[in-house]
Specification:
Length: 306
């Protein structure tokens, strides 16, 4: 049996999925905003970290502007959770109406090539909603990877939630997941990966808003190994319930260099696309953790490089 904390965590998420989806949409929106404002006013670790990250994105922002951005950021973050709790009960025809993706012809053309497609996204707005748009409005099933959470029952809830939206969800098990993703791509399939934070030893160092961060090698490495098309995508919120997004041009595999060198160049290109989208909509970037290497505490840095 898990710890009391694990059981409480699982119970809270379960209550969210069971209760919030029954609320009228305006009530859920209002609840999310009240929770966000309460958390923001407490000025806890997550809020301070969000402001620190936003200071990199908007370097000329003063203290008042950063506080304004962090408040909007917490409201955006809680909007994500309110939507997540409600999505399984939302009529599927709404996804085509409420989500607007610019340049989605790039995605369609890439899929028509038969090479397989990798869509890489940062933690902007609601990536689950974008996935629901793809599976329902476009009729495009896809595969993604979910980080294992504790307790295991909470991980199972997230898997069931995303599968209810039409996604194939693989647990993050290193090489095993990579092999399945490669097979899906070689069969001409679509995979979608959230790819703006990776503190593991396998992460690729990139320049991101003027400093060094690590991002996952997986999207670029899969493209190099399988010949699939790599497409960065960015999202942002409009007025409730609208969400918008953009499919960026393909990141091409360099003609020369080792596999590691090609992967590094492509990951930097993905990071540059992410940076453009985040700079345009910083309040919708849900990065409440340390990201840049010089922000890591000594213990974190040692573990990241181990």
């Amino acid at each position: 049996m898990g710890s009391l904390r694990d059981r409480l965590t699982d119970g809270l998420y379960g209550a969210g999925w069971a209760g919030v989806k029954k609320l009228p949409e305006p009530a859920a929106v209002a609840l999310g905003r009240r929770i966000a404002d309460y958390v923001w006013k407490r000025r806890g670790t997550s809020v301070l970290r969000l402001e620190s990250n936003l200071a990199r994105v908007v370097p000329d922002a003063g203290e008042a502007r950063l506080r304004e951005l962090s408040r909007a950021g917490m409201r955006s973050y809680m909007r994500y959770w309110m939507e997540a709790f409600r999505l399984p009960a939302v009529p599927k025809e709404r996804f085509g109406r409420d989500v607007r993706i610019e340049d989605d012809h790039i995605l369609r053309e890439a899929l028509a090539s038969g090479r397989g497609v990798i869509v890489a996204l940062p933690h902007l707005a609601n990536w689950d909603l974008a996935g629901a748009w793809a599976t329902t409005h476009l009729g495009l099933p896809f595969t993604t990877v979910a980080e294992r959470l504790k307790p295991e029952s909470l991980f199972d809830r997230f898997v069931a939630y995303r599968e209810s939206l039409g996604m194939e969800v693989l647990p993050h098990n290193g090489g095993a997941a990579f092999g399945v993703l490669a097979r899906r791509l070689r069969a001409g399939g679509l995979i979608c990966l959230v790819a703006d934070r990776d503190l593991s030893a396998s992460g690729v160092e990139v320049e991101f808003f003027g400093a060094t961060a690590r991002m996952p090698a997986g999207p670029a490495l899969l493209a190099v190994q399988t010949g699939a098309v790599l497409l960065p995508a960015t999202l942002w919120y409009g007025d409730t319930p609208r969400m918008y997004g953009r499919i960026h041009p393909p990141v091409e595999v360099p003609e020369t260099g080792t596999r590691a060198e090609k992967t590094a160049v492509m990951t930097q290109a993905v990071a540059d696309a992410f940076a453009g989208g985040i700079a345009e909509h910083p309040e919708d970037w849900h990065m409440l953790q340390r990201l840049w290497l010089d922000d890591l505490e000594p213990r974190d840095a040692a573990e990241a490089g181990a």
